[in-house]
Amino acid sequence: MTNKATGGCLCGAVKYQVTGVLRPVVACHCTQCQKTSGHHVAATSAPRENIALLEEQGLKWYFSSKGIRRGFCQQCGGNLFWDHTDKSTVSIFAGTLDQPSKLKLVEHIYVEDKADYYEITDGLPQRVGFQISGGADHGE
């Protein structure tokens, strides 16, 4: 049996489908994620070849660092993807998945950059930087 997940932005100008297993969700508290999302980012990931764009008229990529681009909808502003262009996986913002996703949040990364207006109290592992359990690329 093949798993398929779908998702997209708020206005529908970007829609995608993922075939196969999605990584559990990781919350990234880095400064860049805060600036692009207004809070922290919760993301899953999948191998690049397992992600198909069903609608991409609104998709725009912004290179936020060397080799790292962030995909968002240029119509509604929805943040969708984090892509390290040298890696084999693409991170997908978990909130853009159609529900139910059946995914679980498993850890927090870049906690040293966390904003001062909230506490992380869920008891999940908290990591400095982006060394994620299981060797995943970036937590987003």
Mind explaining what this structure looks like?
The chain has one helix spanning 31-37; strands at 4-8, 15-19, 25-28, 41-47, 51-55, 59-65, 68-73, 79-84, 89-93, 105-109. With 140 residues, it is mainly beta. Strands 6-7-8-9-4-3-10 form a seven-stranded mixed beta sheet. It has a three-stranded antiparallel beta sheet with strand order 1-2-5, with no helix packed on it. The longest helix has 7 residues, at 31-37.
Task: Please provide a brief summary of the model.
By secondary structure, the chain is mainly beta.
Helix content: under 10%
Number of strands: 10
End-to-end Cα distance, whole Å, is 27 Å
What shape does the CA trace take?
A: globular
Multimeric state of these chains?
Answer: single chain
State the major sheet: 7 strands, mixed
Order of helices and strands: EEEHEEEEEEE
The percentage of residues in β strands lies in 35-45%
Radius of gyration: 14 Å
Question: Which structural class do you get from the secondary structure elements?
Answer: mainly beta
Strand arrangement within the widest β-sheet reads 6-7-8-9-4-3-10
Q: Kindly report the average pLDDT value.
A: 92
**Residue runs with pLDDT of under 50 for 5 or more positions:** 132-140
- The total count of helices amounts to 1
Question: Notable features of this structure?
Answer:
single chain, 140 residues, mainly beta, seven-stranded mixed beta sheet, three-stranded antiparallel beta sheet, globular
